[in-house]
């Protein structure tokens, strides 16, 4: 592992970064390794950053994009993300904070895509989120030319463990990202993930063709996370019991298929819970699907029933309980809101967990709100 630079090397950018953190996000200080990760970007030095969920990975590439703008340098930061829901969540949050950010994915109408590309050409976009297929796959030459003309400053690859065949969530399309070196030879590449063994990190460096990268690995100790394992019995009864213990708290139920999502959401409504299904098969008539998204539901205190794939997305503020009716590959997700209960109900066990201190107040005093999702939802 290459150690981060000393304080003397970090000093020049600290004031600009601190101003951006405070002005946009209201933070007064850096979390561990954030400053070093941000300086690697501002110094145009390739990097691999492995930080635990909740460690502030997204700020590591969002803040430098704004500092570049503050310094009146034209250019755009490209963020490659594997999930539509994650893109939307981060871009929506940035826009609320006044940051000019956009995304390009399959949910956009043709005129919306044209508007995004126009904002890139006219230097009105500071952060652009795209999928690996859209930037490196078939038919992506036009977008790459647009970014070359706009002046690409750096490329951040989120969920970078997907590039490794040794990772738990290997995605072949990530292997194409190394080809971007030929189109953007002077642009630095920065890989971010919450889960990467040393072998996976080596694979990331190799596949992305990183040049003498700075490698930053944070601590993964989660003292506020506790697991309690119980043998699974009757799913409906167990779910009812857990919801009863967390009355007035929003929750999310993850299911292995769209069919189970719909069935469980129906059953929860019959039991008196405010439950809605959410998965990729829902039509977005009048924005109905968007309103059932993690962001839209959390604003109303409603947690969606969704597929297990959606577990990769961030749990919104106000979400206190999570349940899975099938096996999880990872529990490493972000929680904004202190304590949350997690219950895994797989073939042989029911696994609840607690995160952080319990809320003393509840945003929603109505019946417990639950949302239901499937693995292909995103």
**Mind describing the biggest β-sheet?**
8 strands, mixed
Mean pLDDT level: 75
- Structural class estimated from helices and strands: alpha/beta
- The first-to-last residue Cα distance is 34 Å
Please report the number of helical segments.
13
* Shape descriptor: globular
Total number of domains: 2
Roughly what percent helix? Answer: 25-40%
Which features characterize this protein?
378 residues, 15 strands, 2 domains, 19% strand, seven-stranded parallel β-sheet
Summarize the structure.
The chain has 378 residues and is an alpha/beta fold. The protein has helices spanning 7-25, 34-42, 57-70, 84-96, 110-121, 132-136, 141-150, 180-183, 198-208, 235-245, 258-270, 288-291, 294-299; strands spanning 47-50, 76-80, 101-104, 127-130, 152-157, 188-193, 214-217, 225-227, 250-255, 274-277, 305-307, 319-324, 341-345, 350-355, 369-373.
Explain this structure to me?
α8 (180-183) links the parallel β5 and β6. The protein is of the alpha/beta class and 378 residues long. The chain folds into two domains: 7-217, Rossmann fold, CATH 3.40.50.300; 225-373, P-loop containing nucleotide triphosphate hydrolases (Rossmann fold, 3-Layer(aba) Sandwich), CATH 3.40.50. The longest helix is centred in the N-terminal third of the chain and has 19 residues, at 7-25. α1 (7-25) packs across α2, α1 (7-25) packs across α3 (57-70) and α2 (34-42) crosses α3 (57-70). The strands form two sheets. Strands 8, 9, 10, 11, 12, 13, 14 and 15 form an eight-stranded mixed beta sheet that branches. Strands 3-4-2-5-6-1-7 form a seven-stranded parallel beta sheet, with helices on both faces. The chain has 13 helices and 15 strands. The chain starts with 6 loop residues before the first helix and ends in a 5-residue tail after the last strand. Helices cover 35% and strands 19% of the residues.
């Amino acid at each position: 592992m290459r150690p981060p630079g000393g304080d003397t090397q970090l000093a020049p950018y600290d004031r600009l970064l601190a101003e951006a953190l405070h002005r946009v996000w209201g933070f007064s200080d850096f979390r561990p390794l954030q400053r070093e990760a941000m300086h690697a970007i501002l110094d145009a030095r390739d990097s691999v950053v492995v930080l635990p969920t909740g460690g502030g990975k997204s700020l590591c590439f969002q803040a430098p994009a704004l500092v570049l703008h503050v310094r009146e340098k034209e250019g755009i930061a490209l963020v490659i993300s594997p999930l539509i829901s994650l893109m939307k969540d981060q871009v929506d949050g940035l826009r609320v904070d006044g940051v000019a950010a956009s995304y390009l994915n399959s949910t956009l109408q043709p005129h919306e895509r044209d508007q995004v590309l126009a904002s890139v050409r006219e230097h009105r976009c500071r952060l652009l989120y795209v999928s690996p297929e859209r930037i490196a796959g078939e038919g992506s030459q036009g977008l790459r030319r647009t970014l070359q003309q706009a002046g690409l400053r750096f490329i951040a690859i989120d969920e970078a463990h997907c590039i490794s065949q040794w990772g738990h969530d290997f995605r072949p399309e990530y292997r194409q990202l190394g080809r971007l070196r030929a189109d953007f030879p002077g642009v630095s590449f920065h890989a971010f993930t919450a889960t990467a063994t040393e072998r996976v990190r080596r694979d990331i460096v190799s596949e992305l063709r990183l040049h003498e990268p700075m490698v930053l690995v944070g601590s993964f100790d989660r003292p506020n996370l506790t697991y309690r394992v119980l043998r699974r019995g009757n799913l409906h009864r167990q779910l009812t019991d857990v919801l009863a213990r967390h009355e007035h708290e929003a929750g999310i139920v993850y299911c292995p298929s769209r069919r189970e999502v719909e069935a469980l959401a129906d059953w929860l409504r019959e039991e008196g819970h405010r439950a809605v299904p959410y998965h990729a098969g829902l039509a977005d008539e009048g924005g109905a699907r968007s309103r059932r998204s993690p962001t839209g539901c959390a604003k109303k205190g409603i947690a969606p029933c969704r597929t297990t794939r959606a577990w990769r997305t961030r749990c919104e503020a106000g979400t206190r309980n999570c349940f899975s009716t099938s096996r999880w590959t990872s529990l490493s997700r972000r929680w904004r809101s202190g304590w949350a209960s997690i219950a895994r109900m797989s073939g042989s066990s029911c696994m609840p967990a607690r995160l952080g201190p319990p809320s003393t107040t509840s945003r929603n005093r109505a019946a417990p709100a639950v949302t239901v999702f499937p693995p292909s939802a995103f």
